[in-house]
C-alpha cells in the first residue's frame, strides 16, 4: 500500500544548506503522472559525486521512504503493481520534517519480521512493481550493440593482404573481360572471378567463426551476473535475482557481498566497504546509517547558525567522514546492515562505469605467443613472396622485348605474377593460429559450463592445463556441504547424539531435549538465542514450503533448534531480541558474536565459533542445576574440565566432525555503550571476547563427496599435487584428507600458526611435502600460494570467503564457489565452480590441457602445409619458363581455407581423452613445439615435397604425358599434383589428432562431430573442384586410375607418420645437440 500523504506538515524546521541547493533535486517536482516524489535523475545526483547536501534536500531517509512509497522496516509489498496518486518533493520533505524528532527506524532489520496471516502466501501479480519499473527501470544493463554479421564480414575483409589480393583480382578480371570482348582469350576472366569468389568464401567463413565466438562469450558474460540477493519484502526475508531488484527495496549486506545497486544505509553494524571499483582507492570506507548522518549534520548546522565557529569547524571535519552511501559494485569487507536501493541498472554508479567501458577482452598469453609466431612465419612468407615476385618480374621484363603478344596479354601476365605473389603471402601468413586459440577457448568454455565451470577469464582456461598444485578448501569442495549436528554436550558432560562411527548396540544416545532438561528453563532460552539469534541464516518462504538459506553450518544448528528445541518460527524468536551489535563471522578470529539487551542495565554477548578458540576465552561453565529458574547457574572452569572438553573436541575432530563451541558473557550497560543504533561506542570484538562462560559443544557431520577419491587419484596420475587448506581442527582435516587420498605416509600436516613461524628456508623444505594445512586463515592461504609460486609451481586455489580475495588473485588460477562463495570471492576468481565440487576442478584441468593440445595439433598441421605450399609455389614458378606456378592463385586460396578455417574448426574441437590426465603437466616456459611435433612436421614436409617435386619433374614418365609441349597434359599433371597435395593435407589432419608417439589416430573421433562434418565438407569440396571446377580452378577431370594414384600417394601420409613415431625422440635431440 502507498504511504499516507501528509497534508499538514509540522512547523519543525528542516535543516537547510548554507549554499544553494542542487538544482536537479529541487528545481521542479515530477510531472503529475509521476507516482513518486523523485525522478531517477534526481536520485542519481546523490552518488555522482556523493552529496550529503542533496541527501538532506531530498528529506533524508524519512523523505526517501515517503517519496518512494516504501517502508524501511518491512520493505516493498510483494503484491504491489500499479500505484495510483502522486507524491511531490515538497510533500516528501514535509514528511521528513514530521519525523526529525523521531528515531523510529528499526534497529532489528537483520531479523525477519513475522508475517501477518494475510501475507503468509501472497499472490504475486504478473505486473509486479509496474510503476517502479516504468519510472526507474530494471536493474539490468543494456547489452552493448552487437556487431551485425555484415560488420563482421567487413572486419574480416578489412585486411591489407585481402584488400591487395582483391585489387589484383579485380584488375585481372577487368583485363580478362577486355580480352574476351575484344575477341582474344575467352577464359582468362574466369580466374579473376574465381579469386573473387574464393576471397568471399574465406571472408564469410572467418566472419561466421567470429559471430559464433561472440555469441558464446556473450552467453558467458550474462552468466557472470546470474546471482541472487537477500531483500526484505512484506516483512519477509527472501532471495531475489539481481535483475529483479528495484528502487525502494531493502537489501541485506554482509561480508563478501557485492552491492547490486546504489543506495543509502538504513541500519549499520560496523559496515566497511571497498569502493575501489568506483574511486580507484582501495581504502576501507567506514559507513554510517542515513539517520546518524542526518542527525550529525543537522547538529552541525544548528551550531553554525548559533555562530559557534569552533564547533562548526570540528563538526565540519566530522561531516567529511560521514558516508551513508552504498555504491553499486562496492565490496562489503566487514559488518552487517541493510540499505535502501535508490539507483539501479544504467542509472547506478556501476552501471554507468560498465556502459562507458569497451567490451573487447585482452588476448590470452597463448594468443599473444601465437600471434608473435604467426608474425614470424608471415615474414618468412613475405620474404619468399618477394623473392618469387622479383625473379618472375625480372624474367618477364627480360622476355618483354621479344614477346609479340598484345599489351592486354602482357598486362594479364603481369597481373598473374602479382596475384600469385600476393596469394603466396596469404597462404604463408597463418592467420588461423589466433583463430584456433579463440575457437578452442570458445568451445572449451562452453563445454566446461555444462560441467559446472564458469570461466570468467579466458587465460585461466589455458593456465589450468599446466597447473602443478591445487590448494583446495575442505568444506563443500571435498565434502558435500550437507551438514547435520549429530553429537555434542552442554556444560562439561551432559552429552547427546552419537559419533557417525559409533556402532555399539548397547549405547542409547541421549537426545537434545533430555540433555537440556537437566538444566533450568533459563538455559534453554540462552541456548535458543545462541543458536537462532546469533546467526545470519534465515528461513525463506517458497511455493512448496519454507527453506533455510545461508551458511550450511548455521543451517545445521537452526535445524537442530527447530527439531529438538521446539522453535517452529525462527523469525518470531528473533523478533523478541533487542540487538545492540553484531560481530559477523571472521575467518581470522574464527568466531561470530551478537550483543543484545537482557535488562535495561545489562547486555549479553553470545559467541559462536571454532570450539578450541571459544574454549580458550572461557573461565566459567554452565552447570546442570535445576534449582535456579531465573538465571543460568555457572561455576569455575578448572583445568581438568578444560582437558575433558579438549579431548572431546579431538575425538569429534578425529571422526571428521566440525566442532562448534558456544559461550556467553554478561556486560554492564557502561561497557556496552549507549548507542541505540549500535554504530558507535561499542568495544571491539577482542575486548569483549574474554572471561566467557562455556555453554556447550556441537559436532557437525559433513560427509565426503563420493566422487572425490577418484578425482584425487586422477590429479596424482596427472602429476598435480593436492593440498588441503582448511580452517578446521587438524584432526578433522587429517581424517578427511586420509579418507579421500590427499594424506599419504610421507606427507606433512601442519597447523597454520606453526607455519607462520617457519623461515623461508624451512618453508622451501616443507612445502613440497605439505599436504594438509589446518586452522588456516585467508592470509595463510595467500602466503602458501605466493611461496609455492616462488618455488616454480603453477598454483590453483579455491576460496569462498571475502578475505580469500588476495589468495585467489595471487594464484595462477583462482576457483571460487558458486553455491557457498561470497560475491567478493567470485569477483576475485578466474573460474567459478557452480557446484562447489572438487571433481569440477579436475574437469578444468582436462579442458585446459585440451585447449593447449588443440593449439599444438593445429600448429603441427599448419606449419607442415605452410612449408610445403610455399616451397612448391615458389620453386615451380621460378622453374617454369612461362612464370606459372604448379598451384594457381584460386587453388592456393582453397588450400588457405583448408589450412586456416576448416582445420581450426576440426582440430580445436576435440574433447579431452582419458589419457590427457595420465601425463605430467607442461612446464610454464615450455616451447610451443615438442620434439615429437618437430619430428612429425619435418618428416611429413619431406615426404610431401619429395612426392610433389617427383610428380612435377618426372610426372611425364610416370603417367606417359607430354607436359612440356602439350598444354592439356600440363593441366592434367598439375591437377594430379594439386589433388594429391590436398588429399595429403586431409589425411595428415588425422595424424595431427595425436601429439604423442602412439599409433591410434582415430581414438574418440566419433565424439567430435565438428571434425567429421568439416572433413566431409573438405572431401566434398575437393571432389566438386576436380569434377566441375574446370577453368575456374585451372583443373581438369581425372580418370579412375588417376584418382587411385592421387589417393594412393596421399594415404601414405598415415603409415609414414607411424614410421616416424618409431624414431626415438632422444635420438633427434642428440642429433640436434651434435649439429649445434
From TrEMBL:
Location within or outside the cell: Membrane; Vacuole membrane
Gene3D superfamilies given in the database record: Calcium-transporting ATPase, cytoplasmic domain N, Calcium-transporting ATPase, cytoplasmic transduction domain A, Calcium-transporting ATPase, transmembrane domain, HAD superfamily/HAD-like
Molecular function GO terms recorded: ATP binding; ATP hydrolysis activity; metal ion binding; P-type calcium transporter activity
Membrane-protein topology: Multi-pass membrane protein
One GO location term (cellular component): vacuolar membrane
SMART domains: Cation_ATPase_N
Chief localisation class: membrane
Keywords: ATP-binding, Calcium, Calcium transport, Ion transport, Magnesium, Membrane, Metal-binding, Nucleotide-binding, Translocase, Transmembrane, Transmembrane helix, Transport, Vacuole
One GO BP annotation of this record: intracellular calcium ion homeostasis
Membrane-spanning segments: 161-178, 190-209, 376-397, 417-444, 942-959, 971-988, 1009-1030, 1042-1063
Principal EC category: translocase
Chain intervals for the UniProt region annotation (Disordered): 1-36, 96-123
Family annotation (InterPro entries): ATPase_P-typ_cation-transptr_C, ATPase_P-typ_cation-transptr_N, ATPase_P-typ_cyto_dom_N, ATPase_P-typ_P_site, ATPase_P-typ_TM_dom_sf, ATPase_P-typ_transduc_dom_A_sf, ATPase_P-type_domA, HAD-like_sf
Domain Cation-transporting P-type ATPase N-terminal: from-to ranges: 117-177
Purpose: Catalyzes the hydrolysis of ATP coupled with the transport of calcium. This magnesium-dependent enzyme catalyzes the hydrolysis of ATP coupled with the transport of calcium. Transports the calcium to the vacuole and participates in the control of the cytosolic free calcium.
Similarity remark: Belongs to the cation transport ATPase (P-type) (TC 3.A.3) family.
Stated name of the protein: Calcium-transporting ATPase
Natural source organism: Aspergillus uvarum CBS 121591
Amino acid at each position: 500500500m502507498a504511504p499516507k500523504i501528509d497534508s499538514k506538515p509540522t512547523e519543525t524546521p528542516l535543516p537547510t544548506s548554507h549554499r544553494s541547493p542542487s538544482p536537479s533535486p529541487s528545481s521542479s517536482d515530477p510531472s503529475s503522472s509521476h507516482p513518486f516524489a523523485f525522478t531517477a535523475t534526481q536520485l542519481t545526483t546523490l552518488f555522482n559525486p556523493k552529496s550529503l547536501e542533496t541527501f538532506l534536500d531530498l528529506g533524508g531517509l524519512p523523505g526517501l521512504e515517503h517519496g518512494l512509497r516504501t517502508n524501511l522496516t518491512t520493505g516493498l509489498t510483494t503484491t504491489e503493481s500499479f500505484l495510483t496518486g502522486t507524491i511531490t518533493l515538497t510533500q516528501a520533505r514535509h514528511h521528513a520534517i514530521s519525523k526529525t524528532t523521531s528515531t523510529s527506524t528499526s534497529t532489528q532489520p537483520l531479523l525477519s519480521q513475522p508475517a501477518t496471516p494475510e501475507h503468509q502466501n501472497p499472490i504475486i501479480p504478473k505486473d509486479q512493481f509496474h510503476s517502479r519499473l516504468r519510472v526507474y527501470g530494471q536493474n539490468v544493463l543494456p547489452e552493448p550493440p552487437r556487431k551485425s554479421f555484415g560488420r563482421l564480414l567487413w572486419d574480416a575483409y578489412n585486411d591489407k593482404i585481402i584488400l591487395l589480393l582483391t585489387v589484383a583480382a579485380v584488375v585481372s578480371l577487368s583485363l580478362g573481360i577486355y580480352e574476351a570482348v575484344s575477341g582474344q582469350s575467352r577464359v582468362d576472366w574466369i580466374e579473376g572471378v574465381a579469386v573473387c569468389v574464393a576471397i568471399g568464401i574465406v571472408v564469410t567463413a572467418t566472419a561466421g567463426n567470429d559471430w559464433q565466438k561472440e555469441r558464446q562469450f556473450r552467453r558467458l558474460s550474462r552468466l557472470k551476473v546470474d546471482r541472487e540477493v537477500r531483500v526484505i519484502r512484506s516483512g519477509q526475508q527472501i532471495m531475489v535475482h539481481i535483475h529483479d531488484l528495484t528502487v525502494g527495496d531493502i537489501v541485506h549486506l554482509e561480508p563478501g557481498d557485492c552491492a547490486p545497486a546504489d543506495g543509502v544505509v538504513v541500519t549499520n553494524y560496523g559496515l566497511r566497504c571497498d569502493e575501489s571499483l568506483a574511486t580507484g582507492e582501495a581504502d576501507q570506507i567506514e559507513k554510517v546509517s542515513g539517520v546518524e548522518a542526518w542527525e550529525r549534520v543537522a547538529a552541525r548546522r544548528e551550531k553554525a547558525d548559533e555562530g559557534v565557529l569552533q564547533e562548526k569547524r570540528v563538526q565540519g571535519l566530522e561531516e567529511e567522514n560521514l558516508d551513508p552511501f552504498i555504491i553499486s559494485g562496492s565490496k562489503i569487507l566487514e559488518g552487517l546492515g541493510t540499505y535502501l536501493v535508490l539507483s539501479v541498472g544504467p542509472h547506478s554508479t556501476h552501471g554507468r562505469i560498465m556502459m562507458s567501458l569497451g567490451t573487447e577482452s585482452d588476448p590470452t598469453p597463448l594468443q599473444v605467443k601465437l600471434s608473435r609466431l604467426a608474425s614470424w612465419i608471415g615474414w618468412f612468407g613475405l620474404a619468399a613472396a618477394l623473392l618469387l615476385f622479383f625473379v618472375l618480374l625480372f624474367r618477364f621484363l627480360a622476355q618483354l622485348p621479344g614477346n609479340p603478344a598484345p599489351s592486354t596479354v602482357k598486362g594479364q601476365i603481369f597481373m598473374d605474377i602479382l596475384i600469385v605473389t600476393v596469394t603466396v603471402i596469404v597462404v604463408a601468413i597463418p592467420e588461423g593460429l589466433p583463430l584456433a586459440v579463440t575457437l578452442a577457448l570458445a568451445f572449451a568454455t562452453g563445454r566446461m559450463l555444462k560441467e559446472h565451470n564458469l570461466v570468467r577469464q579466458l587465460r585461466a582456461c589455458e593456465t589450468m592445463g599446466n597447473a602443478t598444485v591445487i590448494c583446495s578448501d575442505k568444506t563443500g569442495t571435498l565434502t558435500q556441504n550437507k551438514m547435520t549436528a549429530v553429537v555434542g554436550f552442554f556444560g562439561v558432560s551432559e552429552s547427546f547424539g552419537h559419533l557417525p562411527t559409533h556402532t555399539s548396540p548397547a549405547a542409547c544416545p541421549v537426545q537434545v531435549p533430555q540433555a537440556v532438561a537437566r538444566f533450568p528453563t533459563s538455559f534453554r532460552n540462552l541456548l535458543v538465542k545462541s543458536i537462532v539469534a546469533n546467526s545470519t541464516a534465515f528461513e525463506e518462504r517458497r511455493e512448496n514450503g519454507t527453506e533455510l538459506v545461508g551458511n550450511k553450518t548455521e543451517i545445521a544448528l537452526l535445524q537442530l533448534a527447530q527439531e529438538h528445541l521446539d522453535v517452529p518460527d525462527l523469525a518470531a524468536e528473533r523478533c523478541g531480541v533487542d540487538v545492540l551489535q553484531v560481530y559477523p563471522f571472521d575467518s581470522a578470529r574464527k568466531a561470530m558474536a551478537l550483543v543484545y539487551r537482557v535488562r535495561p542495565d545489562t547486555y549479553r554477548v553470545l559467541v559462536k565459533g571454532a570450539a578450541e578458540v571459544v574454549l580458550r576465552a572461557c573461565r566459567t561453565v554452565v552447570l546442570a542445576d535445576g534449582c535456579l529458574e531465573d538465571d543460568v547457574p555457572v561455576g569455575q572452569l578448572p583445568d581438568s574440565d578444560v582437558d575433558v572438553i579438549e579431548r572431546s573436541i579431538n575425538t569429534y575432530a578425529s571422526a571428521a566432525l566440525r566442532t562448534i563451541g558456544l559461550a556467553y558473557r554478561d556486560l554492564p550497560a557502561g561497557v556496552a555503550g549507549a548507542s541505540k543504533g549500535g554504530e558507535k561506542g561499542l568495544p571491539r570484538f577482542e575486548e569483549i571476547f574474554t572471561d566467557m562462560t562455556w555453554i556447550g559443544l556441537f559436532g557437525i557431520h559433513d560427509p565426503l563427496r563420493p566422487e572425490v577419491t577418484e578425482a584425487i587419484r586422477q590429479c596424482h596420475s596427472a602429476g598435480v599435487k593436492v593440498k588441503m587448506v582448511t580452517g578446521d581442527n587438524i584432526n578433522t582435516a587429517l581424517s578427511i584428507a586420509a579418507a579421500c587420498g590427499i594424506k599419504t605416509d610421507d606427507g606433512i600436516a601442519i597447523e597454520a600458526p606453526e607455519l607462520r613461524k617457519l623461515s623461508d628456508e624451512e618453508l622451501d623444505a616443507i612445502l613440497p611435502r605439505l599436504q594438509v594445512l589446518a586452522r588456516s586463515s585467508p592470509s595463510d592461504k595467500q602466503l602458501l600460494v605466493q611461496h609455492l609460486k616462488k618455488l616454480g609451481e603453477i598454483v590453483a586455489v579455491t576460496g569462498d570467503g571475502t578475505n580469500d580475495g588476495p589468495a585467489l588473485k595471487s594464484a595462477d588460477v583462482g576457483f571460487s564457489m558458486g553455491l557457498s562463495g561470497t560475491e567478493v570471492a567470485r569477483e576475485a576468481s578466474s573460474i567459478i565452480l557452480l557446484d562447489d565440487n572438487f571433481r569440477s576442478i579436475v574437469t578444468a584441468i582436462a579442458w585446459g590441457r585440451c585447449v593447449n593440445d588443440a593449439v599444438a595439433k593445429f600448429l603441427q598441421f599448419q606449419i607442415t602445409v605452410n612449408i610445403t605450399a610455399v616451397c612448391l609455389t615458389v620453386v615451380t614458378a621460378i622453374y617454369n619458363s612461362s612464370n606459372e606456378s604448379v598451384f594457381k592463385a584460386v587453388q592456393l586460396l582453397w588450400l588457405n581455407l583448408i589450412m586456416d578455417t576448416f582445420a581450426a574448426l576440426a582440430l580445436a574441437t576435440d574433447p579431452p581423452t582419458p589419457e590427457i590426465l595420465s601425463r605430467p603437466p607442461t612446464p610454464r616456459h615450455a616451447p610451443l613445439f615438442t620434439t615429437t611435433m618437430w619430428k612429425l612436421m619435418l618428416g611429413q614436409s619431406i615426404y610431401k615435397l619429395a612426392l610433389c617435386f617427383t610428380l612435377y619433374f618426372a610426372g611425364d614418365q610416370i603417367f606417359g604425358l607430354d607436359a612440356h609441349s602439350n598444354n592439356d597434359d600440363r593441366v592434367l599433371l598439375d591437377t594430379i599434383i594439386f589433388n594429391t597435395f590436398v588429399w595429403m593435407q586431409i589425411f595428415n589432419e588425422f595424424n595431427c589428432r595425436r601429439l604423442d608417439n602412439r599409433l591410434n589416430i582415430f581414438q574418440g573421433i566419433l565424439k567430435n562431430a565438428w571434425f567429421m562434418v568439416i572433413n566431409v565438407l573438405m572431401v566434398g569440396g575437393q571432389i566438386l573442384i576436380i569434377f566441375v571446377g574446370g577453368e575456374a580452378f585451372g583443373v581438369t577431370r581425372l580418370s579412375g586410375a588417376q584418382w587411385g594414384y592421387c589417393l594412393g600417394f596421399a594415404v601414405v601420409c598415415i603409415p609414414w607418420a607411424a614410421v616416424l613415431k618409431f624414431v626415438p625422440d632422444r635420438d633427434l635431440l642428440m642429433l640436434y645437440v651434435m649439429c649445434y
